[in-house]
Structures
1.
Amino acid sequence: MLVQIVRFTLLPSLTLASPGVAKLRQHASGAGAFRQYQGYMTSTQYLSLPKNRHEICWIILWHQNFTAADKPALVGLEGITQAEPTTMLYDFDHSQLEELTRGIEAPICEFAFIRLSPDAPLSDPALRTSMHKTYTDCYKMQGFVGGQWAYSINADHPDGVAVSDNKLLISEKRRLAVFFLGWESIELHQDATATTIFAEEMDKLKPWFYAGSGAWYNSFQKYD
């Protein structure tokens, strides 16, 4: 299942309720999106990633039979944005959809990015275990709702790539992981970052962190 993240900054005169933004979602639905989410990005207290004022995060879940090769072009962005929109693509199994949805639809969805350095041994069992345990340990933290994680198949930085860029990364170049993590509140997530459970895998992975690791928050409106 192809999941697309699009980052864009609206013109100052527009909001998510504007007709031009609604048309954008309509075009995506007509092209094969079965579910969409949009929301304003909010900075985090811990390792916050840079963002523009009033920047939007748009999540598109494409129909199950879609692949990156036949991802439709997005129509309508050029007339409503201040700067060039960017995108990231992620591939999930359909069995992961339920927990992914819990994370996205939580009161607070945290996008936590771990960008691994070029020297990080992706095939090393210890590294792979720590990456996945970073996700599964969240279920032991108060206020966690659900989520999923995956490596981007087309981008190596949370800034993303141009929406028109159709290139995919080879497996050994896929070093940008995103964790879609749902929380009941920002404060509960902040509390979680101060726990020993949180620190356990972070301490193991920090030697492999590269510039671009960090996070932002979203509260999404769902569009079917």
Note: The chain has one domain: 2-223.
2.
Amino acid sequence: MSSTDQPEPKSESASGNDQRGGGGIFSWLTSVRARLGLQGPPTLRDTLEYALREDQADAAGAFSLEERGMLLRLLRFGASRVEDIMVPRADIIAIDENEPLSELLTQFEDAGVSRIPVFSETLDDPRGMVHVKDLVSWMVEQARASDTKKAKPALADSGGELAQASQAPSESATEQNFHACDFSRIDLSGSIAATKLKRALLFVPPSMPSMNLLLRMQTTRIHMALVVDEYGGTDGLITIEDLVEQVVGEIEDEHDEAEDSYVTNDSKHGLVVSARIPIDELEELLEVSLVTPEEAEEIDTLGGLMFSILGRVPGRGEIVRHASGFEFDVLDADPRRVKKIKIHRPKPAAETGQNE
């Protein structure tokens, strides 16, 4: 047999090599996309998300559980929009610019935040924001200014020489500054509008990519934005902390208080929950399915479920009945939202028959 008749050794093609390791994931995603009728090959984002999933431990073995979680959150953050992260309008803590400074100080203390948006009459007419550091600096300046006239004469006697300078004990700069302040003379009755405390804030649409807003906050050094709709109405509020937490997880500092539980067992009312409790968490608590898979795409909270059932916001004292037999008694609500709800479990069949 001539050399030309001998079979040539098989060589692995580039595509053959691609079937190993990461190439296997890529080809699997390609076939899935083809079956679903999706055009084009999978993106790098698709491949990374698949590789980082918990059930793909071998593919993501180079990363710890925490690293995989952060990388996944980063990928999801890149695909999110401002409306997915913002604090809704009903939950915004804000203050009217005509309110006195004493009320502003009280709000900072109660809310435990560093920035509060300022508006005129309604949230649809925002005027800026106030930073707690600016308020404290203003108070210190007022305390020093009110005591300047009293402090200056004490430094010299009638002869123009330092009064007993050689006999007085030396004080540190901090002690001198403290003694130069008279906080009792600070007038907090004036309005916020009468001061120069207001700073600019950003205005962004709900559809803005979250990553773009983060970059804009970094470049402008303005860390609070109001989310406004096409008509100029305020939809929500978002801060740089809200954005960063989407990647690194919840950030709590020394002044953050632990969040109240969504669920409380009240001695008077029984099982009471917040309208903001996530539906999946409530279903796990009650051991019942409250929404269909299709409804789960639109309904996130118990408040949303009640609105879906009635087609409106239920009023205080109203009872909303679910097909599962559970009843939701509204304990606290305002015209815009439900706040607290008492849950009544379905009555046993025997008890129901006796009542009939």
Note: The domain at 263-355 is CATH 3.30.465.10 (Uridine Diphospho-n-acetylenolpyruvylglucosamine Reductase; domain 3).
3.
Amino acid sequence: MLRSRRKLLLLLPMTTLAGALALASCSSLPPLGQRQASTAQLDTDDTVLGQAALAQMARHPGLAGIHPLVDGHDAFAARALLAGAAQRTLDVQYYIWRQDTTGALLFDALRRAADRGVRVRLLLDDNNSGGLDAVLARLDAHPSVEVRLFNPSANRRLRVLGLLTDFARLNRRMHNKSFTADNQVTIVGGRNIGDEYFGAASDVSFADLDVMAIGPVVKAVSDDFDRYWNSASAYPASLLLERGQEAPAEPDKAAAAEYLDAVRRSEFIEQLVRGTLPFEWGRTRLVSDDPAKVMGKAAKDAQVMHKLTALLGKPERSLDLVSPYFVPGKDGAEAFAAMARGGAAVRILTNSLEATDVAAVHAGYAGWRKPLLEAGVSLYELRREWVQEPRDKRAGAFGSSAASLHAKTFAVDGERIFVGSFNVDQRSFHLNTEMGLVIDSPALARRLSETLDQNMPQRAYEVRLDKSGKMIWVERQHEKVLVYEEEPGTSWWKRATVRVLSWLPIEWLL
């Protein structure tokens, strides 16, 4: 009797899991036959944003005006102000959108724009939309708003089980990030929507980078949005989400008021009001993956890595690269090593183990450090905690009080710079869709290089090889130099966990 009961107790969870898996496998996505195609509006030159952009573009024909958004408050303000100024359209595309203070404020900004009659198209990757179904359903119910979910889970309640039964598809994600108003101004870069990206989180903050752009490249971003919006992986929220769900609790209004008060003091807003917001002008090209990449059907020459290689070429003098998740793989490591051996000064900044928010990615990176160092590549790893004067604009890609690096940018030969969503890792290479801007601007390329020159010695560990060929980490604290023989700021357990993860055949997932 006791043996039978034990057997039943063992079989019960197995049977439950099998039943759940069967239920999940039976779920399927709805057909898209009734979905309406839509495209960006072209007749927007007469809008407030259009007139402002045209006045500047007339002095720089054929070029794009680029304004870097380094500070988190500025990055939030730019999006909120574009939503407030839009008169015709808002096309918004993101990988993550949190229902926190800044996420709720920007949802409200979209809703208020729709109330003015602005057509709002919101395209979100479905991987991180868990818990947002009620919010998105309410937003989608607005007559001027349409929400679409990219590569969605068919089963809204059993997402994890859906991942188990449809892993090959759901493992591929849309990592793109853009915010375009009236087809006249766009924001492209590394930031998702959430407190940690906009300097509103108390526990963690990402050092990130976007650019705000005007000029011909905006039309390219709009066309690319249309390509994703009308792709076979973009599902109208109305086909997936139940109406009438109980909405989650609103974020703390006091916290929102405090944050908005801080944003109002942003230098970005002051410059915008005075009409003195500076732009760097240069030829700018959009690079973006074919949305069919998430279905494993994109041709190699339609992928961002191929396009970047074609546009940027092989660095002859220098490469300054910032990538929070750096898993180059064999081919990538050999390419960087060849650049260094060929005489180019190659500097790479990524997260240290103590700073990364994804330990598994560090496991995929760690094994490539020594061969890169042996080839002459300079490696730096951002420290988790460092002190900086508040709102210091000189921090460049480091942000203002960052605990973890999230910016994705690199400068080639001091002449061209990339800013976007693309990480130098296997997910960006092969699995996720990515986008970004290649900007011909010695001024912006020089700014990145100078930022690294000024900030890395005090804010990042330099990874070196000692005389015996063993890796060491060098930390500079003003006049003092500290040398570590193992990953600084980490426990034995964390290092052991990363070591075990590095033995697993998971690099292709990273």
Note: Confidence is low (pLDDT under 50) at residues 1-24, 387-396, 398-402.
4.
Amino acid sequence: MGPAAEEKRRVLLVCREESYAHHFEGVAAPENVEFDFVTNDNEPYASTFDALFIFSCDPIGLIEEEERREHLIDWSTKKIVFITPAENLEASADILYTPVAGLVSLEKFLLYAGRAIEILADYPFLLEPELNYLLASEVKRKKQRLAPVERFLLQRERVDVPLRDAELNILQLLLDGRSTKEIADDLYYSVKTVKRYISNLIRVIGTTDRTGVVVHAIRNGWVEPYRSEHAAGIPVSAIKENM
């Protein structure tokens, strides 16, 4: 006996919006994929497929509607890619926060339908190329949010009390956790001079100690957090240039 024939992957295309159904009538799948196109919501039949393309002008609305319904099938076990007109693509991108397998425009799908069907049959995710930047931005945002804060960088233009440049320089070093002696060494001041500037910061800002100065700067938005993926910090030489 020869080797057993490889079981075909099953992919279903669903379009329940009558005015768009004609776009999909000529769609053909590769020979190694068992494919069908339907315009109804026959859930038991749809559940026999491994992956589904679902057309909707409003994918987010459709998902919300389906979540309110009772289903006999666990659709989370299926790969589902939504198709939507190109003008709705970016507005529909929030569905990528849900457990779907992708999002493509109607126009791109019709151009590359066979390839798209094959990709969904073989791979876990399919995304419109123009949306890659959104996905990359979200990954970066989450990475930044989870990364520890490396330092707080003073944004001088946000400071809303009258401080001299020397005091702003010292405030930055206080934010960096430097001691009085370290600040004096970094800026070539005497310890006495640094103490005088710190006392003036406390008085002008209206706090009771140097810790209060730092807390006030952070709470009032005078700083921008720099996280561990950034450089460890601005060298003291850069602060000296502002003196």
Note: Strands lie at 9-15, 33-38, 51-55, 79-84, 102-105, 126-127, 149-154, 223-227.
